[in-house]
Amino acid sequence: MRLRHIKGAREFLEANNEFVITDITNFDIFNVWSSSQPIHLEVGCGKGKFIIDMAKTFKDINFIAVEKYDSVLLRAVEKYLDLEDKPLNLRFILADFNDLAQKIAQHSINTLYLNFSDPWPKARQAKRRLTSPIFLNLYKNILTKDGYIIQKTDNVDLFNYSLLQYELAGFKIISKTYDLHSTNIFNITTEYEDKWSIKGPICYAKVRL
Ligand SMILES: C[S@@+](CC[C@H](N)C(=O)[O-])C[C@H]1O[C@@H](n2cnc3c(N)ncnc32)[C@H](O)[C@@H]1O
Closest ligand 1 atom, CA of 100? Predict the structure, then answer.
């Protein structure tokens, strides 16, 4: 995603601390909501359409949207603020998931969403991919025993790499398709998906331990 720095983005996010967390020093997932609903988390929420629509649709799930760039998260939060009926089961976190993962309680997340993650195509960049063994180990630690990872991407190379890494890490592939939009799998689209699915099919995988 092309990044344009927006002046005052961090301050704006800090001012909306009712539903945006900008300091994860003392982060405790069990203190985010008073309700003990299942928790779903999107790594790299971008401008937030997917997670906002999910939170509106599934009121009995608590959602966390993680994004590392303040200027990008600002767009998601603006979208949320524009809603008349804001879903209270959604929180935004400004953090690099690498840092946040260390603070998330073991086996507390029911589903992780990886939507159109950066492909990092060069071999030397492989460990930055959100489905590299390093990240899959982080996910194993925070996912519940029956938790899922749901991935969508338009990048077939990243998808094939991810499928292999899931298997090597001991995840079972529950469903997969190289053309999500031609199936009847339930799907809420992301900004990136709306933009790029015109150019080619979307790959989808649902995996669990
Ligand atoms: C290509 S965009 C896709 C955004 C959105 N999921 C969508 O589908 O429209 C990937 C996003 O993931 C974010 N991201 C990548 N690595 C991250 C990390 N380690 N922690 C938090 N956010 C990350 C990027 O800043 C970027 O906004």
Answer: 20
* Residue 2 clears pLDDT 70, i.e. is over it: no
Domains of the chain: 36-208 (3.40.50.150)
User: Which of 131, 115, 137 has the alpha carbon at shortest distance from 188?
Assistant: 115
Q: Minimal CA–CA distance to 1: which of 179, 196, 199?
A: 196
Residue 46 CA to ligand 1 centre (angstroms): 5
- pLDDT at position 1 over 60: no
Q: pTM of whole model > 0.85?
A: yes
User: Pick from 89, 64, 92: which is nearest to 78 by CA?
Assistant: 92
Q: Is 99 a catalytic residue?
A: no
Q: How far apart are CA 64 and CA 32, in angstroms?
A: 10
Average confidence (pLDDT) over 43-66 = 98
**137 phi and psi, to 5 degrees?**
-65, -40
Q: Can you tell me which atom of ligand 1 is nearest the CA of 96?
A: 20
How many A from CA of 42 to the centre of ligand 1? 9
